[in-house]
Amino acid sequence: MSFRAPKRRHVKSTRFIKDSDSEDEGEPGPTDLKNNPSNLSVEEAVECIRTWQNFRKRHAGVSAESLFVGRKIEPEVLIEDDPFKMKTGGLVEMRGAFLKPTKEEFEDEVRLSRTFTAETNKRDEDADMLKYIETELAKRKGITKTEAEAPKYVV
Length: 155
Description:
By secondary structure, the protein is an all-alpha fold. The protein is 48% helix and 0% strand. It starts with 29 loop residues before the first helix and ends in a 14-residue tail after the last helix. Keywords: Nucleus.
């Protein structure tokens, strides 16, 4: 049985070619500070870390609207110009979804629910249905009605 060492992550390393003509020799750049961390003050170290964090930051792309106009457009303006609210979730207004109903809306809802229950109660107590239930129960119990007792017409 043999064990392999785990693979190491490949770290991207960049090498800078120093031109003595183009750089100032007296002031170290951020790459010099990262490669040679000795003799750093706290402020220089913090500045170096911040510059490297800014280098790693992912920048957003350019929107089609700003390319069309030819200048940068603020995101708030783009959202305001969205008539179908596609960028903010469609035609749903989330502010209205979580608001408590007003007194009138609540009364309308209660009235509708009462009307619905009253109509279902009336439908459940339909006369034809009651007759059908009675005849079926009588059949199951074994009681048979004679022709004289049974109604001739169903109303």
